[in-house]
Amino acid sequence: MAELKTGVASAIQAIREHFRHSDVKVLPNPSGGANVIIEDVPLGPPYNQAKTWVGFYLSDACPYDDTYPFYVTGNLSRTDGTALCPPLHINQRFPADGSSLETRDAVMVSRRQRNRGSFAYESPLLKLKTVLKWMVQQ
Predict the structure, then answer these.
(1) 21 φ, ψ to 5°?
(2) Cα distance between residue 120 and residue 67, in whole Å
(3) Which residues pair with 38 in a beta bridge?
(4) Count of CB atoms within 10 A of residue 67's CB?
(5) Is the pTM of this model over 0.70?
(6) Residues 31-77: pLDDT tens digits?
(7) How far, in Å, CA of 26 to CA of 36, rounded?
(8) What contacts 95, CB < 8 A, 6 or more positions away?
(9) CA dist., res. 57 & res. 59, Å (int)
(10) Residue from 58, 64, 75, 47 nearest 24 by CA
(11) Residue 72 burial by CB count (10 A; 0-12/13-18/19+): exposed, middle or buried?
């Protein structure tokens, strides 16, 4: 197994602590980054799914890089029956690069942080929490 960069390992530790009741899978890559999958993340209305998995990539530049994009279950659907539309992108795969046997059908949640100066202040955990909050407010 590749050794994780310090920033990546710290981010994963914070994620594991916050989601302590969920299975957090870490799929390291040779550069010291990792694909992360968190199982059974609460979701609920306005979606039909009470829970989802969430996947994302932590680059070896973490925490000085945006955590983007996030992926959720490929069968995501709304309770009101309306179609998902951007920034929710259907028919995706995670990990998108196919780097793992754990590749899953997914919906990509495209919520990029444009302010590069804030990457160090918006940890991967905070970004994830912000994205999940955004999703349920739609």
Answers:
(1) -95, 5
(2) 11
(3) 24, 54
(4) 25
(5) yes
(6) 999 999 999 999 999 999 999 999 999 999 998 888 989 999 999 99
(7) 5
(8) 27, 35, 55, 57, 102, 103
(9) 6
(10) 58
(11) buried
